[in-house]
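QA checklist item 7 of 12: single-chain prediction sanity check.
[x] sequence parsed
[x] length recorded as 100
[x] structure emitted
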Amino acid sequence: MIDKQDKKAQAASLKALRQEHAETVARTQAYLKAQQKVRKALKAAMQAGPMTVPQIAAAVDLPADQVLWHVTALKKYDQVTEVGQDGEYYQYALTEEVKA
């Protein structure tokens, strides 16, 4: 059983850790927010129908390697599905559109 003294010490320790890592937490939150913004743009571009990575990259004005990274993450979390090929490139579509 934890007594009052231990709870206070634990609370003070957690507060010190939050203050010590505040910059790291803020930086990480900003990074995640930027990623979400990019993924939202990718999904908006893909509303028009299946697209290849180069087509998506052109639509959102980002390098193809970054787009591929995000599309891979979206695919991992079942938000994007491979639906075919266009030449040597896979085409991707939003999963909800494929299921509809």
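[x] summary fact logged: The first helix runs from residue 4 to 20.
[ ] second reviewer sign-off
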